[in-house]
Fold:
Amino acid sequence: MLEKYFLKEEGSLLNTSGDIDPRPVTIRAENKTCLDLLHKTPLSWQIEDAQNNWYDAVDPDIAFLITDSSGRTAKIDQLKFGERYTIEPAWAAGKENKNYSADFVAGEFDTAHTWDAGKVTKEATEKADGVKTYTCTVCKATKTETIPKLKPAVSGTPTAKMTAGKTSITIGWNRIEGADGYDIFFAQCNHSGKKIVCRNVKTIKGNKTFTWKNSGLKKGTAYKAYVKAYVYKNGKKTYVKSSPMVHAYTGNGTKNYTNAKSVSVNKTKVTLKKGETFKIKAKVKKVKKNRKLMPKSHVSTLRYMTSNSKVATVTKSGKITAKGKGTCYIYVYAHNGVSKTVKLTVK
Structure:
């Protein structure tokens, strides 16, 4: 009985007659033992010995000849991906009976090679993919693997601002480099002293949207919010930055109170030496001149924040202290997040 074999992706011959267990066949080419072949045609194999005896078996040490579509001999480590070739035992080359030859299309299969651990041949950056190259320890064939672009390091100073409509609040925030998205926490303020915790009301996926409108709110009512930037680490959402809490009235105020319209400062650019100080003098312009800003017992009229405490710090009253060489920004913001920025250089 003639045993039937099929050329497998792994570079072995699989016996399908059921008479014997499948066993690999080494295909040799100049002492190389790697195979990049994709089977296309069933193949019946026979072996002829020196006495012209035929055997229905496969010799694991037999040598094979590979030719391209033009009949030219092809080296196994130089096959072109997607090209069609013919394979047959070397001793059968030129014989008219082609029962022991088969056509195949060259493909790439890891199990056909013995790959090393690989070497990074091009480092990935935040702007471009990298490349890792693997080399077969037997035939020196190579393959490459794409290394994804590096994720930008998380950076940026989280700020938030509330812009009031009659029955809506639009929350805006600045972009945090490297963030995978933002969660918005929101609640109604309670000036009676009862604590109301903000809850997560909206998730913004990606790093391209930096505003969200909350509609259908009560007119002339105070609300508060803050924004948290998050990244995914090992598939788990992790918060990396959080803005200060900001507060605002819908309709821009009540009978007695109003929102801040803008903030002004005495200087927008300051240069100091290490150890020196500077006092920011800031003023808030109100939306409605004849009304008060939100009570200080609820939130400070002005707050201050530094983008880099290693360069400079700032107190609650706006006093800057230079700490180290560099440039940073001091954010001066009102209760609703309306702000002015002071650029600080420390020499």
User: Anything to note?
Assistant: Confidence is low (pLDDT under 50) at residues 1-61.
